[in-house]
Amino acid sequence: MKKVSFDDLNNKVCVITGGAGVLGNVIAKGLASVGVKMAIVDINKEMADQVALEIEKESGVKCIGIEANVLDKASLKKAKEEINNKLGKINLLINGAGGNSPKATTQLEKISEENLNELEKTFYGLEMEGFTRVFDLNFIGTLLPTMVFTTDMLNDKKGAVLNISSMNAFSPLTKIPAYSAAKAAINNFTEWLAVHLSTTGIRVNAVAPGFFLTNQNRFLLIDEKTGEMTARGHKIIRNTPMEKYGEPEDLQGAVNFLLSDISSFITGIVIPVDGGFNAYSGV
Ligand code: NAD
Predict the structure, then answer these.
(1) Residue 1 lies in a domain
(2) Do 166 and 212 contact (CB within 8 A), yes or no?
(3) Of 16, 43, 132, 277, which is best to mutate to test ligand 1, by the most ligand atoms within 8 angstroms of its C-beta?
(4) What is the rounded distance in angstroms from the CA atom of residue 237 to the CA atom of residue 233?
(5) CB of 260 sitting under 6 A from ligand 1
(6) Is the shortest distance between the CB of 212 and ligand 1 below 6 Å?
(7) Using a 6 Å cutoff on CB, does residue 42 contact ligand 1?
(8) What average pLDDT score do residues 191-220 get?
């Protein structure tokens, strides 16, 4: 009988963009734990090197830090060359760079009679610069690395891509329209590319993390002055049936599953890892 395992991942080469981030570095550790050689690609070279070193020490698997900007094709091509030289052909890609910014966030959830004189805090006050930056980082920052880092897979007739979506992709969250639109675009692109590549041997899937307390959303969930959970933070916990935030380690199983041959007939799906948030109507 054939053993069901992650053994096929052993010795594979995986690129993870945003790999120095809070979720990215833990996802990378989960893959290294089953023998995947990791290229930690990040705009922050110092952090990428630090994470790579830590993973290599913990897992004994080769791991390198690489500097690249997911919005700059030339820097991604240079990164690919370096990865090919140091680790070999790329077999797997995780598009992990992304995030929201206060500059693309409305201060008010809704416009009402009471706040009509505060339109700068609403949709009408959003600055295009912040909006575009967040939209591009999340969407174009997935598109470009996929173009650059999957060419070895195309030659190999085998590979897997994993995008990082979000709860916003299913129903938008209040206050963060650029991030929500970009993550919805990620879901759509995951399906589109899965079909486009369906006979090439490359599978394309995504995970949609629910709520994890991390750098990019801390300002919305924890009051800076008091350190207490904000009203929004309480609302999230109330709407997460498991009544807690996720731990980055909670993503490792779904990620390894979607990248391994265990899921060889699965392409074009988005798996929520969300403590039940997406399944719950709130009633
Ligand atoms: P993070 O901010 O800790 O990590 C993001 C990483 O991306 C950082 O290391 C950063 O340096 C890097 N980065 C930023 N801009 C870049 C660029 N132009 N080029 C290359 N690298 C760049 O964020 P995180 O919380 O670990 O989130 C990782 C992914 O998960 C993101 O796509 C995010 O949208 C998504 N996500 C997070 C949550 C959450 O609760 N934190 C929920 C759902 C989805």
Answers:
(1) no
(2) no
(3) 43
(4) 6
(5) no
(6) yes
(7) yes
(8) 93
For 102-132, how does the pLDDT look when each residue is reduced to its tens digit (9 = 90+)? 999 999 999 999 999 999 999 999 999 999 9
Sole residue written with tokens 């409305």: 106
**Looking at the domain assignment, is residue 4 inside a domain?**
no
Structure tokens at 249: 């380690």
Domain count, the chain: 1
In-domain check, residue 262: yes
Q: Is position 144 within any domain?
A: yes
Per-residue tokens: 221: 């969930």
* Ligand 1 nearest atom to the CA of residue 24, by list position: 26
Quick check: is 179 catalytic? yes
43-101 pLDDT, tens per residue? 999 999 999 999 999 999 999 999 999 999 999 999 999 999 999 999 999 999 999 99
CATH number of 221's domain: 3.40.50.720
For residue 173, the 8-state DSSP code is: P
Residue span of the structural domain in which 60 resides: 9-279
Provide the 3-class DSSP secondary structure of residue 202.
strand
Mutate to test the pocket of ligand 1, among 41, 42, 69 (most ligand atoms within 8 A of CB): 42
